[in-house]
Amino acid sequence: MRILVLGATGAIGACTLQALLAEGHEVIGASRRQPEQEVAASTAPWISMDVTQLPTTAQWEAMLEGVELVVNCVGIIAEKRRGDFEILHCTMLQALSAACTKRHCALIHLSALGSASTAPTAYWASKGRGEEWLAAQDIACTILRPSLVFSPQGASSKLFLGLATLPLVLLPGANVPVQPVSVDDLAALIVALVRMRLAGETWPSRIDVAGPRKMTLAQYISLLRQAMGAPPAWLGHLPFALAQPIARVSAWLRLPMLAPEPLTMLAASQDGRLCPDNSMMCQILGRSPRDPAGFATPSLRPAAIAGWAYPALTVIIAWLWLYTAYVSWFAWPHEQSHAWLSACAIPPGLHEFVLATASITDAALGTALLTGLVRARRWHGVLWPVQIGLVAGYTLLMTVFLPQFWAHPFGPLSKNLPLLLLFCVMWRLR
Q1: Which of 296, 325, 355 is the last residue of a domain?
Q2: What is the pLDDT of residue 1?
Q3: How many domains does the chain have?
Q4: How confident is the model at residue 41 (pLDDT cuts 50, 70, 90)?
Q5: Residue 57 · residue 95 · CB < 8 Å
Q6: Pairing mode, if any, of strands 141-146 and 206-209?
Q7: Which PANTHER family match (predicted)?
Q8: Are strands 215-216 and 177-178 parallel, antiparallel or unpaired?
């Protein structure tokens, strides 16, 4: 079949695209951004498109020329702009489904368990309205409602893998029941549905997608930890009332998986809504889905650790620069600083200027590190070689003019060596 996969660079979309290619279908990938070079080389034609800019049925009809099936993996867990949920989960879907009807094109739509127009969060409610719209259309369509999906590239999976490597975790919703499913099984289900379509079999209108067994969120994270071979850890429950202020800070830091809306969904899921009957999925697959005990591997552990270590170290290093700026100008006696500057052959008339410049530079670096981390600026990675050059320059200057600091018991210069290596590691991680 000629198949269009929307959202093909996302965790689910990318896996689905590769599974359909492996089955021998003619697949077109579509997403806002181009895939990585090694992925693009192994795929069929690619369309760079912003689905929010295709609001009308006529625009979608032109896109669907010659397409027999659309797999819609488009979805967001957090809004960048107010109204994004409505545009992506409802308005776009309505125009797409109308175009599919006119083109006699089948549709597989990825929704989510817990979705309903009356749900307590904007994400679930918009997904629910999209499902209700599709259910009322005369179109060959099936709606897949996955539970918690594991993918090494997925945002939620990265979060859980990172938590699984920490020695101490206070987790909101630790006792929430979940039924995790592998992204490979979800992709295999879509491939099986395509086979049914080719055989002329009728699709179920909805399929709940979940793993083989129910467990608590804490047990799931423990399984991931054991599979990665991470050291033992202590995992405790953080009450939702205490987690809400943390979630608001996380939203300000643009960490969508820790924001208030996902936390509200987690609290609502205490009723077991993420643990459905997966018998229809098993019947279509012809087997049981993979057990979560085999999801992770030891090779995932370094990236999982880097996932939380990079932002944590960035914050600490930013604080170090900001604190150094404050101490240099406000806390440490200027007379002592002037004596060191004189030893470095700086003319007395430039002492205050050099000291002020150094303090401002330190403060600017700390601020830039925090800004780049919070706003995900592309120039953030450039800051690490800048810091390497600055610290190396300080170290070289003091080695030449103030070599006695190498013999200082608190190691003001010798401590720069591990810092330089750390900056290099952070640079290459970025």
Answers
A1: 296
A2: 93
A3: 2
A4: very low
A5: yes
A6: parallel
A7: NADH DEHYDROGENASE [UBIQUINONE] 1 ALPHA SUBCOMPLEX SUBUNIT 9, MITOCHONDRIAL (PTHR12126:SF11), NADH-UBIQUINONE OXIDOREDUCTASE 39 KDA SUBUNIT-RELATED (PTHR12126)
A8: antiparallel
What pTM value is reported for the model? 0.89
User: Which residues constitute the domain of residue 180?
Assistant: 2-296
Say if residue 276 is in the same domain as residue 417.
no
**What's the pLDDT score for residue 20?**
97
User: Is the pLDDT reported for residue 174 higher than 90?
Assistant: yes
Domain shared by 16 and 45, yes or no:
yes
Q: Which structure tokens are listed for 72?
A: 């819609």
Residue of 126, 279, 135, 139 whose CA lies nearest to 207: 279
Query: Does any domain span residue 50?
Result: yes
Spatial CB neighbours of 335, under 8 Å, sequence gap ≥ 6: none
Which amino acid is it at 60?
W
Question: Please, which residues have CB within 8 angstroms of residue 172's CB and are 6 or more apart in sequence?
Answer: 237, 238, 239, 240, 242, 243, 263, 266, 267
The whole-angstrom separation of Cα 172 and Cα 352 is: 51
Mean pLDDT of 146-151: 96
Q: Give the 3-state DSSP-derived string for the chain, with helices as H, strands as E and coil as C.
A: CEEEEECCCCHHHHHHHHHHHHCCCEEEEEECCCCCHHHHCCCCCEEECCHHHCCCHHHHHHHCCCCCEEEECCCCCCCCCCCHHHHHHHHHHHHHHHHHHHCCCEEEEECCCCCCCCCCCHHHHHHHHHHHHHHCCCCCEEEEEECCEECCCCHHHHHHHHHHHCCEEEEECCCCEECCEEHHHHHHHHHHHHHHHHCCCCCCCEEEECCCCCEEHHHHHHHHHHHHCCCCCEEEEECHHHHHHHHHHHHHCCCHHHCHHHHHHHHHHHHCCCCCCCHHHHHHHCCCCCCHHHCCCHHHHHHHHHHHHHHHHHHHHHHHHHHHHHHHHHHCCHHHHHHHHHHCCCCHHHHHHHHHHHHHHHHHHHHHHHHHHHHCCHHHHHHHHHHHHHHHHHHHHHHHHCHHHHHCCCCCCCCHHHHHHHHHHHHHHC
Interval 354-394: pLDDT, tens: 999 999 999 999 999 999 887 778 888 899 999 999 999 99
Separation CA 338–CA 315 (nearest Å) = 30
Task: Give the pLDDT confidence score for residue 71 in this predicted structure.
Answer: 98
